[in-house]
Amino acid sequence: MPIPTYHPPKKSRYDVVIVGGAAVGSSVAYWLTLEAQGKVSVLVVERDSTYEFSSTALSTSAIRQQYSNPINVKISQFGVEIIRSFADRMAPYFPGEPAPDLGFKEYGYLYCCSPEGVEAAKERVEMQRSLGAHTVFLEPAALQVQFPWLNVDDLGGGSWGAEAEGWFDSMGLLTGFRRGARAMGAEYIDNAVTGMTVADGKVTGVQLATGETIACGTLVNAAGPRAQQVAAMAGLSIPVAPFKRYSFVFSSATPIPGRMPNVIDLSGTFVRPEGPLFLTGNTPGDDGPADYDDFSPRHQEFEDAIWPALYHRIPAFDALKVQQAWTGHYEYNMLDHNGIVGFHPEVTNFMFANGFSGHGLQQSPATGRAVMELITYGGFRTLDLSPFAYDRIPANRPFLEEAVI
């Protein structure tokens, strides 16, 4: 394979430098260039333009409205709006070829609920429905009728979102945002930011791995699991670290009839169909912060934890065979599992877009738009994401999201 030719930045200064060019960073670049219409210069620095180990590429690529926090419901509703209309929105940037169709499978989510958690689950459903979500709470008998393959013996019920929830093409979303941003003037370089210069409460420049120093007006941290590494370059700190998540694709000797949603078990294991196969994963109990470059698999996770949970919840899964496995990183916000979006109060041109704890892909459309609004107008004009502001971090004031998978 030929070695790619290195292309240095075209300029020595940009109005906005975005560190990280996956889903969140490219969404920021897209919304900025769309709004600015050529009046703002944007540089996106992506350390690996193949995106092989990006959280976007290794994501399970799903979106839901079943959150415990109203703002997260609204963020996902905007995400669904963008996903459904994505091909039409991106068509101008793909002349002569098809724009990305994200293949949105609106099969829904089914959250299994313990008997002790019924009242809290019903309250969440009521809140979600008040915001326009289609979630319903099903008692065990109704669950059994709707999903006859489900073991409901130890359940108090389940919350089911039959519309505007499902899974889609993560790389199609990234490709569209990136292509659109570049068409409107954003510049992407395959490089890494290795340092920053801070003076008088502002980031004045970034140092690249190839030796160049680039001046900037605003610095956007969209570095995913490496968010703290980038923040530290400006002398800042956020409680965000990479946590491993193991995903497995398997075949089953017994098919599941009907339209199967993404089932979230009490154990934290999830499972959904992928064509004739199934995708599963879980929230491991001992997956402390990982090394930034550690993507080693743990195959025993399937045998020891996931398969027993699958077989208990769906007895038809008695004969399974793993076909594929991979390990990705969550950019886990250890304070409250929610994103950090907004400027730092002291390094006043340092913008955070970090810590989404596994739901960054689905929140990338709204996050990119929100960051654009803060940079362009100094405040939110659509969704108010002020609860995600940085100031809760040093104050140790969690803005909790309970529905984390």
From TrEMBL:
InterPro entries found in the cross-reference section: FAD-dep_OxRdtase, FAD/NAD-bd_sf
GO cellular-component term (any): cytoplasm
GO BP of this protein: mitochondrial respiratory chain complex I assembly
Annotated ranges, domain FAD dependent oxidoreductase: 15-374
Superkingdom as given in the UniProt entry: Bacteria
GO molecular function terms listed in the Swiss-Prot or TrEMBL record: oxidoreductase activity
Keywords in alphabetical order: Oxidoreductase
The keyword Membrane is annotated on this UniProt entry: no
Keyword Oxidoreductase among UniProt keywords: yes
The protein's name in its UniProt record: FAD-binding oxidoreductase
Species assigned in the record: Fuscibacter oryzae
